[in-house]
Design brief:
Blueprint (H helix, E strand, L loop, with lengths): L16 H9 L3 E3 L1 H8 L8 H10 L1 E4 L2 E4 L2 H12 L7 H14 L1 E6 L5 E6 L12 E10 L6 E10 L2 E8 L6 H17 L6 H4 L4 E5 L4 E2 L20 H8 L3
Parallel strand pairs: 1-6, 8-9
Antiparallel strand pairs: 2-3, 4-5, 6-7, 7-8, 9-10
Length: 249
């Protein structure tokens, strides 16, 4: 059996090591940049569809007293819904759409053995039993920018069931006022990355953004969300997975 992968500890990334070590201790699996790129398929793709496919295939729903797996069509419907973020309408509505899928699930149509059509709401994250989720952390995630303007590289990205839900920019701790400025630099990178000529497709999925130094952390200001009936103005993910991330702050 191959030994589990471990992050590089080269001096140039020392600022990331405490965060990576903490995540591994909490049960997140390390995914090397090369391994992550292989699962993504290209630098333009941001989802790990094979991981999400496995998670969905293992999920079961009840119908007339029996347990059923999603059909290939059902899995394909979920993947299509998650890929269709509507990023062309802007980052805020795209992130809103993804949030709804994460919080409420994705409803698909299944044709059952008795010939009936049945609507099933498929959860993307198991909030009731977090250990059932596939938690992976990778570093130096290279994502192609829009319009062919090169690529941006993210220090740490956390994947839950193949979905990139948290992005962390790590800055070297200095113990001086400069450290606060460096944290601000990490926030500026997040804001830069979200611009139309950046990598908004990745940030459409992200629900937590952090700039950390090893001693402290900060987050960018929240994007304003339009009022939309019962959905309200600003959302947070249900607590189980959010709590796993919060200790980084």
């Amino acid at each position: 059996m191959n030994a589990p992968e471990r992050p590089s500890t080269d001096e140039e990334i020392q600022a990331k090591v405490p965060a990576l070590a903490l995540l591994l201790k909490l049960g997140w699996s390390y995914l090397s940049p090369a391994g992550c790129l292989k699962l993504r398929g290209s630098e333009r793709a941001v989802l790990l569809e094979a991981v999400l496919h496995d998670h969905l295939s293992a999920w079961r729903f009840a119908y007339r007293g029996a347990s059923h797996a999603l059909s290939a069509s059902g899995v394909a419907q979920v993947l299509k819904a998650l890929n269709d973020t509507g990023i062309n309408e802007g980052l805020t509505p795209a992130n809103e759409r993804v949030w709804r899928h994460l919080a409420l699930g994705v409803t698909v149509s299944e044709f059952m053995p008795d010939g009936h059509k049945y609507s099933v709401t498929v959860p993307l994250i198991d909030f009731a039993d977090p250990v059932r989720n596939h938690l992976q952390v990778t570093e130096e995630l290279s994502v192609a920018r829009e319009g062919g303007h090169g690529r941006f590289r993210l220090d740490i990205v956390l994947y839950v069931n193949g979905i990139p839900l948290a992005i962390i920019e790590a800055k070297r701790p200095t113990g001086t006022h400069v450290e606060k400025l460096m944290l601000g630099g990490g926030i500026s990178q997040h804001l830069r990355n979200q611009k139309p000529d950046g990598i908004p497709a990745l940030y459409a999925y992200a629900q937590l953004l952090l700039s950390i130094s090893g001693r402290t952390a900060n987050t960018p200001p929240p994007r304003p969300r339009p009022n939309s009936g019962r959905c309200g103005a600003r959302r947070k993910l249900p607590p189980p997975l959010s709590m796993r991330w919060s200790i980084l702050g």
